[in-house]
Amino acid sequence: MYKQVWELIHKSHYITLVSHINPDGDTLGSMLSLYPTLKKMGKNVSLFNASEEVSIKYDFLPNFKKIKKIFPQKCDLLICFDCGSFDRLGILKKDFKIINIDHHKSNTLYGDINIVDEKSASSTLVVMDILEQHGKISKDEAICIYTGLVEDTGFFMFSNTDAEVFSKASKLILLGVEPAKIAQNLKMRNSLAKTRLTSIFIDKIELLKDAKVAVGTLTQKDLKKSGALKSDTVHLVDILRNLATVELAIFIIELEDESYKISLRSKNTLDVSLLAEAFGGGGHKKSSGFEHKQEDINRVIEQIINKVEL
Ligand SMILES: [Mn+2]
């Protein structure tokens, strides 16, 4: 499979690397970790993300500033990272080949080549395997790979943290990654607005079903009041899951078009990817999400809770 990836890359001239909408460290780290090698091969490489906002917390990643919101004129190969379905890329299907690199179980295999390894802790580790086939990994590339790895393992706290994860992390550190520096970049650069938003959010948390379910909502009004950005909200669902009694965390954020984005997290055995799929979304066993147009969000919460046995 990896051989096919390199063959298609060799044949292509205008390559666009794409991360999913509302990007996290794994999708960005994946695309940025492949960029230097393709440039060195003499390819025309563009970095694309369709989102209104790409969080500046990732600005320490090498080549971050080269990410553009405008899709390049010429593209004969699209390489997508960490993205379960084509519509989450925010682009129209044109006459280009697609390599789909991911680790989501729910991936719809929309590529001409699909490298989807659901056993991989992060998409960046899949890219690492692909890069290792090609040659030595540079420090810049290692930083991007490590960033995806720490985000998707919750800094080595989630159940996908295994010996393989530490062995890969160790390799990356030997290539020059400084874990403390990356932790500081990701975790210790919060704005006051984000901190204030957290406070507004905590005030509104509700516990249901013998405190096994935690529900937290954020409105556009909350965002405006705090001055925080949408990308300042991704940690909030963890606050819900981290409550001692909680097995299922439901985080709801009102979007600008009055629809809602719902993020689900579980702690032990509950598979929230199935739950999200029932509402047209997807994700991992313990982390998933979907969007919903329905105005009455309480009804949606009720529907979610009715689907689970706790
Ligand atoms: Mn991922």
Count of helical segments? 11
Structural class: alpha/beta
CATH superfamily of the largest domain: inorganic pyrophosphatase (n-terminal core)
- Multimer state: single chain
Distance between the termini: 41 Å
Taking all residues together, what is the mean pLDDT? 96
Portion of residues in helices? 25-40%
Rounded to an integer in angstroms, the radius of gyration calculated over CA atoms is: 19 Å
- For the record, the CATH class of the largest domain is Alpha Beta
Q: How many beta-strand segments?
A: 12
Order of helices and strands: HEHEEEEEHHHHHEEHHEEHEEH
The CATH architecture of the largest domain can be given as Alpha-Beta Complex
Provide the CATH topology of the largest domain. inorganic pyrophosphatase (n-terminal core)
**Total domains, how many?**
2
Describe this structure in words.
- The protein has 310 residues and is α/β, with parallel strands linked by helices.
- Helix content is 37%, strand content 19%.
- The protein has two domains: 2-187, Alpha-Beta Complex (inorganic pyrophosphatase (n-terminal core)), CATH 3.90.1640.10; 192-307, Diaminopimelate Epimerase, Chain A, domain 1 (Roll), CATH 3.10.310.30.
- The strands form two sheets. It has a six-stranded parallel β-sheet, with helices on one face. A six-stranded mixed β-sheet has the order 7-8-9-10-12-11.
- The protein starts with a helix and ends with a helix.
- The protein has eleven helices and twelve strands.
- Helix 2 runs parallel beside helix 3 and helix 2 runs antiparallel to helix 4 (139-152).
- It has helices at residues 2-11, 25-40, 123-134, 139-152, 163-174, 179-187, 192-203, 220-226, 236-241, 272-278, 297-307; strands spanning 14-19, 44-48, 67-68, 77-81, 97-102, 113-116, 206-208, 213-218, 248-254, 260-266, 282-283, 287-292.
- The radius of gyration is 19 Å and the shape is globular.
- Manganese (II) ion binds at residues 26, 82, 103, 122-123, 152.
